[in-house]
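Per your request, structure below.
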C-alpha cells in the first residue's frame, strides 16, 4: 500500500508539472484563435467566444460597449443624426439639455428612439454588430456606421464558442505582403529632411516608386522560412559531424591526457554566451561576415561540449570487441567510425540533431546580432521585427504566426520521440 501511494504521488507530481509547462503553449494557441478584444481581457479568456443578440428580429454577432446600471434613453439629434445615450431628465419637451465646448447650456431637438429601464440588478449593455465594428476599425464603410449600435439587456446576450481560424491566414498575409508606408519612408530614410517637408516628400516619392522598388522594402514570410531552414540544415549537419568525431576521439581512441582534455572541454559549458559575445563578434567582423548567414552556421562545425559528452557516453556503451574485430579484418580507424560506430549510434545522433534543430529554429539573439538585412532574417527575428514595425501590436495575429512557427518543432518531436527517448535512456549505460 505504501508503494502504491508513493507511485501515485509521483504520477500526480509529474502530471501537475507537465500541465504547468504546457500552460504557455495552450495560452498561445488560444490567443491565436481569438479576436483582438479577447486577447487582453480580464479575467483571462481561455476559450474564444462570440456574443449574439437579437437586433431588429435577427440573431447577430455583436461586440459589447458600455454597461448601463441606471435608467436611460437613446436619442437621435435631428440636426446631425448623431445617436446618444443620455439620462431621462436631460430630455425636456423633445429637446436635449446639454452644454457646448465653451460650457454654455444649449438645447438640441432630438427624437427619443428607445427607453432603457436598466438597474443594478438588471443592467443593459451597448452592442454593435461585429461586421460593423470591423469595418469601423479598418477605416472602411460609410461614416453612418458609427451610429449603427443598439442597447439590449445584458442577460439577453447568448455566448457561444467560436474559433477564429482565419487569424492564421491573416497573420501570414500580414508578414508576407506588408509594405512600408510613406510615414515609415519618412522616418527611416528621410531623417535629415525638416519635419515640415518630410511627409509631403515621402508621399510624393512613394507614389512615383515602381511596384518592384516597393517590394524591396516588404517583409517576406517565405524568405524568413527559407533562411531558417537553410540554417537548420547546415547547423545540424555541422553539429552532428563535428561532435561525433570529437566524441569518438574521447571515447574510443586512447591518447595521453585524454581525460584531462575532456574535463577542460566540459568546463567550457560553464562559460555563458554573453561573456564571449563581443570577442566572437569582433572575429566575425574581421572576417567580413557580419550581415551574412555565415556566423550562424560556421561555428556549428566546431563541436560543442554538451553534444560531445552525450555522444561520448553513448559510444562507450558499444562493445569494444566490434572495433577490435574490424581492426583484425584490416579496417582503418575512419572506416570503423563511419561503418560501425555511427550506424549503431543513430538514436544518440538523432537526439543531438533534434536539439540543434530546435536551438537554431528558435534562436533569436544570434540573428539579432549578426544579421543586418531584412532578406536574411530568420522566423524568430522576423516575428519580432513585425511586432516592432506595427506599433500597436495585434496580439492575436502575432500569436497565430508564433503558433505556425512553433508547430513544426512540435510535429518533429512527436515523430521522433521514440528515437529521442531511446537515445537519452541509453546514454551513459555501459555494456
Amino acid at each position: 500500500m505504501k508503494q502504491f501511494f508513493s507511485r501515485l504521488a509521483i504520477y500526480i507530481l509529474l502530471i501537475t508539472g507537465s500541465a504547468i509547462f504546457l500552460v504557455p503553449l495552450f495560452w498561445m494557441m488560444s490567443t491565436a484563435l481569438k479576436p483582438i478584444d479577447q486577447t487582453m481581457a480580464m479575467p483571462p479568456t481561455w476559450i474564444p467566444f462570440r456574443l449574439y443578440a437579437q437586433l431588429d428580429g435577427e440573431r447577430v454577432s455583436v461586440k459589447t460597449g458600455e454597461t448601463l446600471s441606471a435608467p436611460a434613453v437613446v436619442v437621435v439629434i435631428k440636426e446631425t443624426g448623431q445617436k446618444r445615450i443620455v439620462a431621462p431628465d436631460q430630455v425636456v419637451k423633445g429637446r436635449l439639455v446639454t452644454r457646448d465646448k465653451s460650457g454654455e447650456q444649449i438645447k438640441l431637438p432630438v427624437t427619443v428612439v428607445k427607453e432603457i429601464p436598466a438597474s443594478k440588478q438588471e443592467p443593459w449593455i451597448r452592442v454593435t454588430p461585429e461586421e460593423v465594428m470591423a469595418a469601423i476599425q479598418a477605416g472602411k464603410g460609410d461614416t453612418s456606421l458609427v451610429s449603427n449600435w443598439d442597447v439590449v439587456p445584458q442577460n439577453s446576450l447568448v455566448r457561444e464558442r467560436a474559433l477564429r481560424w482565419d487569424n492564421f491566414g491573416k497573420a501570414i498575409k500580414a508578414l508576407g505582403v506588408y509594405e512600408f508606408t510613406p510615414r515609415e519612408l519618412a522616418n527611416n530614410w528621410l531623417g535629415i529632411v525638416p519635419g515640415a517637408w518630410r511627409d509631403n516628400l515621402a508621399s510624393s516619392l512613394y507614389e512615383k516608386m515602381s511596384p518592384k522598388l516597393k517590394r524591396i522594402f516588404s517583409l517576406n514570410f517565405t524568405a524568413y522560412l527559407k533562411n531558417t531552414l537553410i540554417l537548420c540544415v547546415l547547423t545540424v549537419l555541422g553539429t552532428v559531424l563535428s561532435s561525433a568525431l570529437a566524441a569518438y576521439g574521447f571515447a574510443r581512441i586512447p591518447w595521453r591526457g585524454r581525460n584531462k582534455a575532456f574535463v577542460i572541454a566540459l568546463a567550457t559549458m560553464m562559460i555563458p554566451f554573453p561573456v564571449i559575445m563581443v570577442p566572437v563578434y569582433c572575429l566575425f567582423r574581421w572576417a567580413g561576415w557580419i550581415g551574412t548567414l555565415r556566423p550562424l552556421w560556421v561555428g556549428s562545425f566546431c563541436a560543442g561540449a554538451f553534444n560531445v559528452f552525450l555522444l561520448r557516453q553513448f559510444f562507450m556503451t558499444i562493445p569494444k570487441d566490434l572495433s577490435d574485430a574490424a581492426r583484425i579484418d584490416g579496417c582503418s580507424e575512419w572506416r570503423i567510425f563511419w561503418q560501425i560506430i555511427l550506424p549503431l549510434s543513430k538514436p544518440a545522433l538523432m537526439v543531438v540533431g533534434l536539439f540543434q534543430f530546435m536551438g537554431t529554429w528558435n534562436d533569436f539573439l544570434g540573428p539579432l546580432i549578426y544579421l543586418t538585412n531584412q532578406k536574411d532574417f530568420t522566423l524568430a527575428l522576423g516575428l519580432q521585427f513585425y511586432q516592432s514595425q506595427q506599433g500597436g501590436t495585434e496580439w492575436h495575429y502575432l500569436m497565430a504566426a508564433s503558433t505556425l512557427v512553433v508547430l513544426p518543432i512540435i510535429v518533429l518531436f512527436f515523430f521522433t520521440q521514440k528515437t529521442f527517448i531511446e537515445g537519452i535512456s541509453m546514454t551513459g549505460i555501459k555494456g
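The beta strands are 49-55, 58-68, 72-77, 83-86, 91-92, 95-99, 105-116, 124-129, 150-153, 158-161.

Regards,
D.
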